[in-house]
Amino acid sequence: xxxxxxxxxxxxxxxxxxxxxxxxxxxxxxxxxxxxxxxxxxxxxxxxxxxxxxxxxxxxxxxxxxxxxxxxxxxxxxxxxxxxxxxxxxxxxxxxxxxxxxxxxxxxxxxxxxxxxxxxxxxxxxxxxxxxxxxxxxxxxxxxxxxxxxxxxxxxxxxxxxxxxxxxxxxxxxxxxxxxxxxxxxxxxxxxx
Length: 193
Prior knowledge:
Layout (H helix, E strand, L loop, with lengths): L6 H8 L10 E4 L4 E3 L13 E4 L2 H6 L3 E2 L12 H15 L6 H7 L4 H12 L3 H19 L4 H7 L5 H12 L3 H14 L5
Helix pairs in contact: 3-5, 7-8
């Protein structure tokens, strides 16, 4: 049965107190991960934390074990962890993302996350972030008349010039060329946007 953390449990989590390991596990609703009290991950927002007496109870509630603190007494398979990292990036691509932030939120070290993600996906986490952002940018370019600067912001790239450079590196076209080519295609096929 899950409960909200009491003050003693909150203190144990904030202090990464190993003395409480095995007494309870805390689960973070926003990340769907559960940890030991001693986990070195970023201190969670306690409004999103529930306490479980065992790892099995947290697993049964749909939470995944933390990779950093090995909360279930076993490691997540790398493929499952990478799937979780991908989901995290897919859900947060429009926010400013750094490797450290992704690693903190996905409960691993930046070095380990980078190595495992690259091994499993064949691309770096940053390359995947760019891929997701530019895929969404293509949709905006095709389906809206938003200025390129606004599209850049919507996909998480604050600098329009940087956005255009990245877009051209990945697609071999500038965003404007991509939009114009799509418009021509639509007109040639008898469609209008």
